[in-house]
Amino acid sequence: MIHVLLVDDDAIVRAGLRLMLGGAPDIEVVAEAADGAEVPALVAAHRPDVVLMDIRMPVVDGLTATTELRARPGAPEVLVLTTFHTDTHVLRALRAGAAGFLLKDTPPRDIVTAIRTVAAGDPVLSPAVTRRLIEQVAGGGREDRATAARSRLALLGEREREVARAVGRGRSNAEIARELHLALPTVKAHVSRVLTRLNLNNRVQIALLVHDAGLSDDG
Q1: Residues 55 and 63 sit within 8 Å (Cβ to Cβ)
Q2: What are phi and psi of 134, to 5 degrees?
Q3: Strand order in the sheet with 50-54
Q4: What pLDDT score was predicted for residue 211?
Q5: What burial class does residue 219 get, using C-beta atoms within 10 Å of its C-beta: 0-12 exposed, 13-18 middle, 19+ buried?
Q6: Average pLDDT of the segment spanning 130-143
Q7: Structure confidence at residue 170 as a pLDDT band (50, 70, 90)
Q8: What is the pLDDT of residue 134?
Q9: Which stretches of 33-137 are DSSP H helices?
Q10: Closest Cα partner for 160 from 85, 215, 97?
Q11: Which residues carry this modification: 4-aspartylphosphate (predicted)?
Q12: Is 85 exposed, middle or buried (0-12, 13-18, 19+ CB in 10 A)?
């Protein structure tokens, strides 16, 4: 059973999400919060696997709540809710360790699938939407970020860098195994070493680092 904490300041949105998720036999909503300030206590009390986090809330916003939550050992995965066109802070949430984001008009079946995916340890990102989002907020300091990112990636071995770059292009482990002619367990081991060596939370952060380094294009 996947335990979910709903965080949204709109009671109607929370009610709709609870009703929708109630139809999934493997998902249980264990608690709700109307503000990010409530998240730490509810996570401690209910130990959810996934936090479905709104961004815009009146006291503590979802970005701050995500940053604080993911800095703690054993934190649940965070799936951010956004309206995209107005919420340019979501990339910062991904950098803080959120496992991905959903648009608020995402079809119900896709939200259910996304929660299962995140609970299994995989990110939920639409490559096209992610690219546009990154472009929105990647303006100032781009050269500095590229230099810093390349320095960090230089800490990896050659094969690890190849795997990291493939992650940055949105490839799954199975796709990476086929492209690099590796066994699937070997790819998983490389991904784990990349996360450990670079002190990252998840594949999303690998992808963002590769993007910052300018290595996310195919070819």
Answers
A1: yes
A2: -60, -40
A3: 27-33, 2-7, 50-54, 77-82, 100-103
A4: 84
A5: exposed
A6: 58
A7: confident
A8: 56
A9: 39-46, 62-70, 90-95, 108-119, 127-137
A10: 215
A11: 54
A12: exposed
